[in-house]
């Protein structure tokens, strides 16, 4: 009897694998055409968009920085006095061509409350010369368009903001009302600053972002989405921003040009892989899965864990930073960038909350701590005292010894104050030119007064000569103290106002005093406990 010889297992294996291979190739081709190639293109666009987002964030940061600088200048007692004609040396003391060049200012303009020009200073964009004037005429006639735009903004109540103006070249213009340092009272004028988006600004931004940037003014309708233009190995992307212009259609286009080499290389490599996949599918697929897990997926999971842990404790449990491959490079780069970011964040936080001259906390940090201390004292409840300190006749000191010596005096006084604050664990801040303020949580009136007396004594011990002082031949301070129960209303501003009244009484009593505010008696007369030094 004839017995059928079964077909070779090898044949059936290759036949099945061949059919599977054909199906895999067809599926791979379909996936490539419908999913992979579009995904690569979408990823390329997403990468370009991320770079545009980075440029936009840098641009917005520059605007915010300029606006913040305008507010710092405008909310300054010296500026308040200057706009009222009480500080004629203001411009000589604070303005110079070097300052304008370092801060990249084009023009600073001061306007009165009625919108009239009070003072102008800037760098001529044609000659590069620093110029000051009282009106945009003659040598300052180049300022006329800017002054006109600024006065229009004042008339339309478009102040205390940052805007883009479509000039040639375009520029950023920021403004703020001029107020006292404590922002009390009404505005007595306006301060404007402009920063030209010229070639120097573009060069600065290119160094900052690491990307080639172009600017383009367009009268076309602003595009809602980004505009992409692909040409060979490069892609040009542009994003439009609205400008402050009488022509509402005028917009500023910010463009970047990126190299497509990585994308094109990936595309070519992928097509090459497709051609060889048919011959290598059977032999490679299992190995690919194994290698993919071992070389790519597992290290990527470890890298993800590393990026989550480095922000907590900086741990590197799997030694990724010691690898000599791309994963190790990514881990080291991420660790360095994270450390750099933390350092920059710490520096930015310190700059925004501490006085640059004395190193003490500034008004912003003081107000934040006062809010917290006030809330704690009200909710506990517990005692709270605040203190206002002022260097006696500091203007006479500056006039006699000069501003540089005045700055050194402020630094020494601040250092002495800080030593007492550290000893008794309370916060003292520089809240004005020669004005300091302190927060004493849990301090009774007597203990607060005792600390005030120690603060005055430590300044007396410095024996800083003050030849023009009618109080003492050396630098002295006056202190006003108020407690939470002394304020007319339950608010941080009210208790500070009460401390200010006590300081006023100390000055009225001849200065070099520690005055503890005492609530008015039935006769409605204001009294205080004071200690002459």
TrEMBL record:
E.C. code: 2.7.7.65
Enzyme class: transferase
Signal peptide residue numbers: none
Catalytic activity annotation: 2 GTP = 3',3'-c-di-GMP + 2 diphosphate
Organism domain of life: Bacteria
Record keyword Oxidoreductase present: no
UniProt entry tagged with the keyword Transmembrane: yes
Swiss-Prot/TrEMBL keywords: Membrane, Transmembrane, Transmembrane helix
Pfam assignment, any one: CHASE4
Record PROSITE patterns: GGDEF
Segments crossing the lipid bilayer: 272-292
Domain GGDEF: 382-519
Protein name, UniProt field: diguanylate cyclase
Source organism: Vreelandella alkaliphila
């Amino acid at each position: 009897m004839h017995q059928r010889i079964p077909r070779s297992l090898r044949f059936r294996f290759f036949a099945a694998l061949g059919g599977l291979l054909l199906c895999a190739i067809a599926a791979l081709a379909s996936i490539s055409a419908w999913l992979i190639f579009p995904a690569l293109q979408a990823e390329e666009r997403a990468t370009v968009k991320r770079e545009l987002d980075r440029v936009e964030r840098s641009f917005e940061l520059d605007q915010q920085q300029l606006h913040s600088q305008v507010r710092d200048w405008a909310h300054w007692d010296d500026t308040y006095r200057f706009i009222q004609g009480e500080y004629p040396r203001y411009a000589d003391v604070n303005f110079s061509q070097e300052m304008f060049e370092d801060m990249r200012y084009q023009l600073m303009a001061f306007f009165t409350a009625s919108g009239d020009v009070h003072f102008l200073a800037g760098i001529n964009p044609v000659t590069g010369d620093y110029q000051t004037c009282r009106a945009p005429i003659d040598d300052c006639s180049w300022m006329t368009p800017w002054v006109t735009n600024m006065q229009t903004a004042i008339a339309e109540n478009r102040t205390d903001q940052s805007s883009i103006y479509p000039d040639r070249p375009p520029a950023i213009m920021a403004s703020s009302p001029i107020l006292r340092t404590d922002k009390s009272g009404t505005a007595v004028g306006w301060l404007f600053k402009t920063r030209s988006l010229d070639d120097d600004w573009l060069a600065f931004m290119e160094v900052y972002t690491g990307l080639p940037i172009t600017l383009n003014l367009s009268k076309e309708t602003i595009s809602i989405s980004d505009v992409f233009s692909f040409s060979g190995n490069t892609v040009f992307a542009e994003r439009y921003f609205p400008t402050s212009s009488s022509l509402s259609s005028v917009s500023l286009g910010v463009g970047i040009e990126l190299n497509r080499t990585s994308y094109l290389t990936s595309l070519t490599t992928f097509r090459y892989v497709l051609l060889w996949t048919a011959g290598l599918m059977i032999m490679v697929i299992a190995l690919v899965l194994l290698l993919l897990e071992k070389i790519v997926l597992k290290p990527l999971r470890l890298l993800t864990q590393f990026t989550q842990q480095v922000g907590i404790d900086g741990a590197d449990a799997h030694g990724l930073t010691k690898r000599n491959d791309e994963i190790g490079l990514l881990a080291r780069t991420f660790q360095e960038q994270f450390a750099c970011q933390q350092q920059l964040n710490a520096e930015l936080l310190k700059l925004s909350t501490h006085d640059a001259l004395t190193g003490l906390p500034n008004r912003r940090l003081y107000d934040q701590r006062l809010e917290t201390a006030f809330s704690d004292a009200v909710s506990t409840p517990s005692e709270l005292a605040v203190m206002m300190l002022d260097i006696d006749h500091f203007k006479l000191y500056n006039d006699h010894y000069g501003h540089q010596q005045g700055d050194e005096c402020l630094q020494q006084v601040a250092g002495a104050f800080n030593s007492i604050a550290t000893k008794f664990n309370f916060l003292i801040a520089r809240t004005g030119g020669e004005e300091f303020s302190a927060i004493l949580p849990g301090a009774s009136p007597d203990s607060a007064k005792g600390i005030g007396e120690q603060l005055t004594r430590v300044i007396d011990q410095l024996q800083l000569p003050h030849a023009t002082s009618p109080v003492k031949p050396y630098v002295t301070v006056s202190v006003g103290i108020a407690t939470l129960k002394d304020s007319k209303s339950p608010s941080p501003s009210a208790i500070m106002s009460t401390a200010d009244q006590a300081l006023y009484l100390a000055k009225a009593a001849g200065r070099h005093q520690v005055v503890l505010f005492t609530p008015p008696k039935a006769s409605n007369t204001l009294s205080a406990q004071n200690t002459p030094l």
